[in-house]
Automatic annotation (TrEMBL):
Species this protein is from: Pseudomicrostroma glucosiphilum
InterPro entries, per the entry: PP2A_PR55, PP2A_PR55_CS, WD40/YVTN_repeat-like_dom_sf, WD40_repeat_dom_sf, WD40_rpt
Highest taxon of source: Eukaryota
Gene Ontology molecular function: any one: protein phosphatase regulator activity
GO cellular component: protein phosphatase type 2A complex
Protein name: Protein phosphatase PP2A regulatory subunit B
Family membership: Belongs to the phosphatase 2A regulatory subunit B family.
Keywords: Phosphoprotein, Repeat, WD repeat
Biological process according to GO: negative regulation of G2/M transition of mitotic cell cycle; regulation of intracellular signal transduction
Function: Phosphatase 2A affects a variety of biological processes in the cell such as transcription, cell cycle progression and cellular morphogenesis, and provides an initial identification of critical substrates for this phosphatase. The regulatory subunit may direct the catalytic subunit to distinct, albeit overlapping, subsets of substrates.
Length: 465
């Protein structure tokens, strides 16, 4: 574990999980594919391409914001669809926590086809501490009110006086994970999103062409609430890229498309929500139109603010902030990859133009987070337009440490946008997945197989909003 600090933005590198250093040494199964804090922020879950889920628990014995290993379990296994001759990867696409109601944790995890509801709980292991074979000899029972046949020092055959019932004793406490429900065979295409409703009883799952509504307690039945599949697949012009429930109103949800549109739907209108209640789309500037326009306008992630007033969307070049009451254009557009506009042809050839970056809200509703290349990620404050750039890279921390702790350009430190080296971009290092703590300025960043924890703290070492 390494520790470095940087004064810019008050952000501080707190922790790193992951052993392997070089990208060449990392196996595909070790790459983290999703990160998610629970509703309290005391627990953190990661899923990887090997189908494993790892849970971390906040270390209360430490002064700052640190986490320790809690448990690990295999959530999904590779499968083969014999009807379609299709391999189904074990990669975990999304993890969502259900609100805690008792001592156990419940969380949903999904790969391309199957969603599972896991129960994670502490289980007491008991061993047999005493039984009939461990007797240290015969002890005659007391004489009062006992049958005469049992008064002799030698027990009568069949009397059962020397029989001792087994006794169990606590041996250890382990963290167990068991699948409570398996929601399968409801998606013909790859699942890209799951979102738990504010009612705590239902959730939605979205694939390329459909969104299904589930009851957490019913695994063999779901309701199709959005279906954009055309009668003739040759007429297909867009796919669903992300979906999320409203944080307060259990009847509203939002979903985005590859055409750069965001649609807000109300389940009270009709059983099938193909006719959206609101449509958010910004017309493209004709001067910027190119062969790649449709690809870079595709929205990779969409998120409601915690009060449900704003919607955050991420496409390849920008981060956009929408007011739910204003559909024509976003209230703010934040440039992330404008310096890559001249390199779109190269990005298309190496498939990086299809990278799906996530977008996140901070707990105060003012800060937003998204990732970039070279393991950079951006934290914006929508109130004062402050832009903090951090880098989640072990090699950068080592370079900075070797330089005597002096702040260098992009050396694992927070800084302004101008400090990013736009000429030498490593497209193999990218921050696609992250999670923001629900109550404080702490973030978890997935960088290939490493999990980085950053925290904004005051002088007393207490995380602040």
């Amino acid at each position: 574990m390494e520790r470095e600090s940087d004064p810019s933005g008050g952000w501080r590198f707190a922790q790193c999980f992951g052993d392997k250093g070089e990208v060449e040494d990392i196996t595909e199964a070790d790459i983290i594919s999703t990160v998610e804090f629970d509703h309290t922020g005391d627990y953190l879950a990661t899923g990887d391409k090997g189908g494993r889920v790892v849970l971390f628990e906040r270390n209360e014995s430490k002064k700052g914001c640190e986490y320790k290993f809690h448990t690990e379990f295999q959530s999904h296994e590779p499968e083969f669809d014999y009807l379609k001759s299709l391999e189904i990867e074990e990669k975990i696409n999304k993890i969502k926590w259900c609100r805690r109601q008792n001592a156990a944790h419940f969380l949903l995890s999904t790969n391309d086809k199957t969603i599972k509801l896991w129960k994670v709980f502490e289980k007491s292991l008991k061993v047999v501490a005493e039984n009939n074979l461990s007797s240290d000899g015969f002890h005659p029972p007391p004489a009062g009110g006992v049958h005469p046949s049992l008064l002799s020092t030698t027990p009568a055959v069949g009397s059962g006086s020397s029989l001792r019932l087994p006794k169990l004793q606590h041996h250890d406490t382990i963290v167990a994970a068991v699948p409570r429900k398996i929601y399968a065979n409801a998606h013909a295409y790859h699942i890209n999103s799951i979102s738990v409703n504010s009612d705590g009883e239902t959730y939605i799952s979205a694939d390329d062409l459909r969104i299904n509504l589930w009851n957490l307690n019913i695994s063999d039945q779901s309701f199709n609430i959005v279906d954009i599949k055309p009668v003739n697949m040759e007429e297909l012009t867009e796919v669903i890229t992300s979906a999320e429930f409203h944080p307060i109103n259990c009847n509203n949800f939002v979903y985005s498309s590859s055409k750069g549109t965001i649609k807000l739907a109300d389940m009270r209108d009709s059983a099938l929500c193909d006719h959206h209640a609101k449509h958010f789309e910004e017309e493209e500037d004709p001067s910027n139109k190119s062969f790649f326009s449709e690809i870079i306008s595709s929205i990779s992630d969409v998120k409601f603010s915690r009060d449900g007033r704003y919607i955050l969307s991420r496409d390849y070049l920008t981060l956009k902030l929408w007011d739910v009451n204003m559909e024509k254009k976003p209230v703010k557009t934040i440039s992330i990859h404008e310096h890559l506009r001249s390199k779109l042809c190269d990005l298309y050839e190496n498939d990086c133009i299809f990278d799906k970056f996530e977008a996140l809200w901070g707990p105060d509703g003012n800060k937003v987070l998204t990732g970039s290349y070279n393991n950079y990620f951006h934290i914006f404050d929508k109130e004062d337009d402050q832009n903090v750039v951090l880098q989640a890279d072990k090699s950068a921390f080592k370079t900075k440490k070797a330089a005597g702790g002096k702040k260098g350009k992009g050396a694992g430190a927070a800084g302004a946008v101008g400090q990013i080296n736009t000429d030498n971009v490593d497209f193999n290092k990218k921050i696609l997945h992250a999670s923001y703590h629900p109550r404080e300025n702490t973030i978890a960043i997935a960088a290939t197989n490493n999990l980085f924890i950053f925290s904004a703290q005051n002088a007393a070492g207490v995380p602040t909003l």
